[in-house]
């Protein structure tokens, strides 16, 4: 017995080029039409899911194409079928129950709903203009007997869920959508279009930020342990790595293999390109096609950044910097970082962020502040030049020399309790050590988590010290978060919540041409959110 179909509500199914959008009373679902699926099957999946969200077994559907054709249909959510609506009259230009191609025409007819199986498919054409059209016969959708047909992958909207640990400061534990995420060390990224990328074993999946619907997939020839996004030679590349294996993905589905020596260490967070550090003081810098360029590391130095196909290396104690541009044993003459003032003593070179070297200095026996210097590098092959482009004083003299964190996407560096905004040439002292992620410093105290922005201002806090930290934040404000310490192995797209109004804090530092000037007072901490 067929389920009852009421005149209302009506699911609106918009059939465009490359995607089908189902609107169920404002609940909008977007389904891509992949190369290996038929538009009819995707339309049936979209309509069935929209029907289930309306808590109905069957529902009317109105299909609209880009050229103005209208299809009156019925979806059966239990069977997953989308058939023409019975007992309606065609207003098209063609005779019979078929419909013409004229603008605004309506397709109608009568068929019996059947469960979709690999041997029974609806035969449709997906034209270059995104038009859904009947192939033959008396109906826009009809059943084609095909014993050789393969199953079609179902495109679905990932379900919502609650994060099983406290949410990051500023977000709710409600996840608009969730998806499997392999391992506790693999961090999600955003691709070149701003879409979150998850990892499920060896499979990389790009998601629609709003719905979580799968937009693209790539498969690595190994279980992925590291993931990063690069622009190499003007081309976007997703890099996936395991212990001794590295591949790149571009527009095509096939991985671009990189030849990694067995004693090489793959570094995906060490510059604007992937690099492989070798024990014999050489570094391989990876290009878009998977080829590598060899750069020699000076004996007294360590690599601190792959900058395009150049290598920036530093002797962090002496302040000598090399920008190695060629595969040659003849190294360029190093640059000596200029001191910010007469008598200033170098504490350490903190690192290099997108070509700007950052160093910490102790000036004139000052025991209350540290001077942070910023240096731009020249690209001459025979001699490296370093030009001071900014200095700033920051409160305190405690400077971490290890475990330096860098967020190149947002131009940030963190060393212990020091947050450096390299792009703005600013530095701020934090109330504690923390983690740099998604454009923020996340500082955990004994009782709370603080989210601190690039100006050193605490935007909001949460009442628990064990709150999660997002991997990335999408353009529409979703925090893409893993539940570290949880065994569920999921990635959550968390909903942002508005923080309470806070008192206007004072930044911890300001640019100055006089490194001995007094620093600004420490920023205040904002009130907590509602628990």
From TrEMBL:
It comes from the Bacteria. Residues 498-531 have a biased composition (Low complexity). Keywords: Membrane, Transmembrane, Transmembrane helix. The chain crosses the membrane at residues 123-144. Residues 81-120, 495-531 are annotated as: Disordered. Residues 93-103 have a biased composition (Gly residues). This is Uncharacterized protein.
């Amino acid at each position: 017995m067929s389920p009852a179909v009421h005149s209302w509500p009506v699911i609106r199914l918009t059939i465009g080029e490359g995607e089908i959008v189902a609107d169920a009373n404002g609940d909008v679902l977007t389904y891509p039409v992949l190369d290996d699926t038929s538009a009819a099957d995707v339309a049936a999946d979209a309509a069935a899911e929209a029907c289930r969200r309306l808590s109905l077994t069957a529902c009317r559907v109105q299909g609209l194409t880009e050229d103005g054709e209208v299809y009156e249909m019925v979806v059966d959510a239990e069977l997953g079928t989308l058939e023409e609506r019975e007992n309606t009259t065609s207003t098209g230009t063609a005779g019979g129950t078929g419909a013409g191609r004229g603008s605004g025409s309506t397709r109608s007819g009568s068929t019996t709903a059947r469960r979709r199986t690999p041997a029974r498919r609806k035969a449709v054409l997906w034209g270059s203009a995104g038009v859904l059209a009947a192939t033959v016969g008396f109906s826009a959708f009809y059943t084609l007997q095909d014993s050789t047909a393969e199953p079609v992958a179902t495109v679905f909207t990932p379900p919502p869920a609650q994060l099983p640990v406290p949410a990051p400061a500023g977000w709710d534990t409600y996840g608009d959508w969730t998806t499997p995420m392999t391992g506790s060390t693999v961090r999600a990224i955003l691709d070149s279009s701003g879409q979150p990328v998850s990892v499920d074993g060896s499979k990389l999946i790009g998601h629609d930020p709003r719905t979580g619907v799968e937009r693209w997939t790539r498969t690595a020839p190994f279980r992925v342990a590291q993931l990063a996004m690069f622009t190499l030679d003007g081309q976007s590349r997703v890099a996936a790595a395991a212990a001794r294996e590295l591949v790149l993905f571009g527009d095509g589905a096939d991985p671009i293999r990189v030849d990694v020596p067995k004693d090489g260490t793959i570094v995906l967070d060490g510059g604007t390109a992937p690099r492989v550090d070798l024990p014999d003081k050489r570094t391989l810098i990876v290009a878009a096609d998977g080829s590598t360029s060899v750069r020699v590391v000076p004996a007294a130095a360590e690599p601190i950044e792959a900058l395009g196909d150049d290598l920036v290396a530093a002797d962090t104690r002496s302040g000598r910097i090399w920008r190695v541009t060629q595969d040659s044993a003849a190294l360029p003459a190093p640059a000596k970082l200029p001191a910010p003032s007469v008598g200033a003593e170098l504490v350490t070179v903190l690192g290099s962020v997108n070509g700007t070297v950052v160093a910490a200095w102790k000036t004139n026996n000052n025991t209350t502040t540290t001077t942070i210097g910023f240096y731009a590098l020249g690209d001459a092959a025979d001699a490296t030049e370093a030009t001071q482009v900014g200095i700033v004083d920051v409160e305190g003299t405690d400077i971490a020399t290890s475990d330096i964190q860098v967020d190149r996407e947002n131009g940030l560096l963190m060393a212990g309790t020091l947050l450096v905004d390299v792009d703005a040439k600013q530095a701020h002292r934090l109330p504690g050590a923390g983690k740099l992620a998604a454009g923020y410093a996340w500082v955990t105290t004994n009782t709370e988590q603080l989210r601190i922005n690039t100006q050193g201002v605490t935007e909001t806090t949460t009442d628990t010290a064990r709150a999660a930290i997002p991997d990335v934040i999408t353009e529409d404000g979703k925090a893409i978060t893993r539940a570290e310490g949880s065994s569920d192995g999921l990635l959550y797209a968390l909903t942002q919540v508005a923080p309470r109004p806070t008192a206007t804090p004072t930044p911890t530092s300001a640019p100055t041409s006089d490194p001995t000037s007094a620093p600004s007072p420490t920023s205040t901490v904002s009130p907590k959110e509602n628990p």
